[in-house]
Write a structure and sequence with these properties.
Chain B: Pfam families: KhtT_N (PF25991), TrkA_C (PF02080). The complex is a heterodimer of chains A (414) and B (156). Chain A has 414 residues and is an all-alpha fold. Chain A has 16 helices and no strands. Chain B has 156 residues and is an alpha+beta fold.
Chain lengths: 414, 156
């Protein structure tokens, strides 16, 4: 009896606190993710106000949060979106993976953390935050810009890559042997491929089965189906999150829209709990020692993301300004970096990895919206100064290339 | 008009005008619309980007339709008669009062030919028809008469 009262008080205080923080973030036109992480740090072990009774519930809530994050992600795309993107943009996706995963892996090896941590940190630095970026694009009024489809298709490919990457990580973290690991991977790839195929082919049938005019029934069926599939996926060591993502992909049309509306508030609640949970498990005193590597990693991978965006936008025939904008927009890391780091923390590898990931995401989730806004003006001004600087080969080549671009641009006009 | 899918957000429809200005509309999945106009010096970037709710977009479409002058206008004829929809607000003076009490025909010369209430249409309502908030009245008369009718029905 008594402990349930303590639980309610603690949990209520956490949620209320998050609500107020979220409001503050909204007032500052800011993503609330860094504030949630900081709140977790404050409530957790070694923080200002350690909690006891509600920890177990928060842990389960966090797991549901991850599942809902991935489900909603899946709901945003149709299987056809994914397949088309994969066909047309796979080169940008590969470039993105190479440029941004390698610095993370290199840093982990440099710190002497071993290969498994290297794969985890590679994932942390690789995946941009779809949530933060979509919001930034809307806020800056760039939804209609020509470089926006390029940015979005990179995000889609990253999300699709998660469906392959998460099972690998799950298998690695479980410490299974190479043979068992590749078997798991084969199962994961097979399942992902099968679901994609079924979704493209029979998406309408699955959607009709789930469909219901009554919001209550729709909510229960979708949530139940997702948790069930996620659980089974977990049991097969495919990762619960991927199971949820695939359910989201398989649902389409009206059902996806309805489920999206119904589940958004639930996702917001549990995702917030997830960020707090991650913060809870990080001892604030363990952050200062990893601050320098985190900062270095943030600077390097901000640069590589800008390069990725620049390169991808150039391929799509976007002019120089748009290329810088695309690069700057992609810098934000957020929820998925934490999801990946969270898996590693739960599995208990390398104790410094959690604090490093926390610091890294804190830096880039704040920096991302700023680079999105200022990369292009800064780059334009710098290149103008270089151009004025003197008649040396490199700067004088740049403006000529720019002048050619509008000709390329003319092609896709209606 | 060409279209570009924006995965996770919706679809962008592009239009290049005769004056070589580019316009686009982003149709978001959640029903919101974003109207964009592009800069002349950087055709990749929007100079204007306005987010519209569904009703706002509808009002804008109405204003853009070449044939329409007023969002409530149904049609005009050469006889100088107009037909309009007039909606009763929920705080209207006439809520719960009889149609006859408005003395509409005597005062303005217009006819109330139908009342739309939720999904139903009541054709030719009599003087003892009881009005309610949210009713939409279809009135036909001269331009002045219909304006006068709108003024009477707008009484709070």
């Amino acid at each position: 009896m008594h402990s349930s009262a303590v639980f309610l008080i603690e949990f209520g205080a956490i949620i209320l606190g998050l609500g107020l923080l979220g409001r503050l973030a909204g007032r500052l036109k800011f993503s609330p993710i860094p504030l949630y992480l900081l709140a977790g740090l404050a409530f957790g072990t070694g923080g200002l106000l350690p909690l006891g009774a509600s920890e177990e519930f928060v842990a389960i809530g966090a797991e549901i949060g991850v599942i809902l994050l991935l489900l909603m992600l899946g709901l945003e795309y149709t299987a056809t979106d994914l397949v088309t993107n994969l066909k047309t943009q796979y080169r940008s996706g590969l470039m993105d993976a190479a440029l941004n995963a390698l610095p993370g892996a290199a840093m982990a090896l440099l710190l002497g953390w071993g290969p498994v941590a290297a794969v985890v940190l590679a994932g942390v630095t690789w995946i941009s935050s779809s949530g933060v970026i979509a919001k930034v694009l809307g806020d800056l009024g760039r939804l209609g810009n020509r470089e926006t489809p390029v940015v979005l298709s990179i995000l889609v490919l990253e999300d699709l890559a998660m469906a392959v990457y998460l099972p690998i990580i799950t298998a690695l973290l479980a410490g299974v042997s190479l043979a068992a690991g590749s078997a798991t991977l084969a199962v994961a790839l097979g399942v992902a491929g099968l679901v994609l195929f079924l979704a493209v082919r029979y998406g309408r049938v699955i959607s009709r089965f789930v469909s219901s005019d009554d919001p209550e029934k729709l909510l229960l069926v979708v949530l139940g189906l997702t948790l069930l599939v996620a659980g089974i996926a977990q049991q097969l060591q495919v990762s619960a999150a991927v199971g949820a993502f695939l359910v989201g992909i398989a649902l389409s049309g009206e059902v996806a829209e309805g489920a999206h509306n119904l589940l958004s508030p639930l996702r917001d609640l549990f995702a917030a709990v997830f960020f707090v949970f991650f913060g809870l498990h990080t001892d604030p005193s363990s952050i200062p020692p990893v601050l320098v590597p985190a900062l270095a990693l943030a600077v390097v991978t901000a640069g590589t993301k800008i390069a990725t965006g620049y390169w991808a936008a150039k391929r799509a025939g976007i002019s120089a300004k748009g290329r810088w904008r695309a690069g700057g927009t992609l810098v934000a890391r957020g929820e998925f970096s934490i999801v990946i780091a969270g898996l590693a923390v739960t599995a208990g590898i390398e104790p410094s990895l959690g604090p490093l990931a926390t610091a890294y995401v804190l830096i880039l989730v704040v920096l991302g919206p700023l680079t999105a806004r200022y990369t292009e003006p800064v780059a334009t001004r710098l290149s103008a100064r270089l151009r004025g600087g003197g008649p040396d080969g490199v700067p004088s080549a740049a403006p000529r290339a720019e002048m050619l671009d509008p000709v390329e641009d003319g092609a896709p006009r209606a | 008009m060409s279209s570009t899918p924006l995965p996770g957000i919706g679809v962008r429809y592009d239009l290049t005008t005769r004056e070589d200005r580019r316009l686009s509309v982003v149709a978001q999945r959640d029903g919101a619309r974003v109207l964009n106009a592009y800069r002349r010096d950087d055709p990749d970037e929007c100079a204007l980007s306005v987010k519209l709710t569904a009703p706002e977009a509808e009002a804008l479409i109405d204003a853009l339709m070449p044939a329409h002058h007023s969002p409530s206008l149904l049609s005009t004829t050469d006889l100088g008669l107009v037909a309009e929809r007039i909606e009763l607000s929920s705080t209207s003076y006439w809520c719960g009062r009889l149609l006859g009490d408005t003395r509409m025909r005597t005062e303005t010369g217009v006819s109330i030919v139908a009342v739309l209430r939720r999904a139903d249409a009541v054709p030719a309502p009599g003087p003892d028809f009881r009005l309610a908030g949210g009713d939409t009245l279809i009135v036909i008369g001269t331009r002045e008469g219909v304006d006068a009718a709108a003024a009477i029905l707008g009484r709070e």
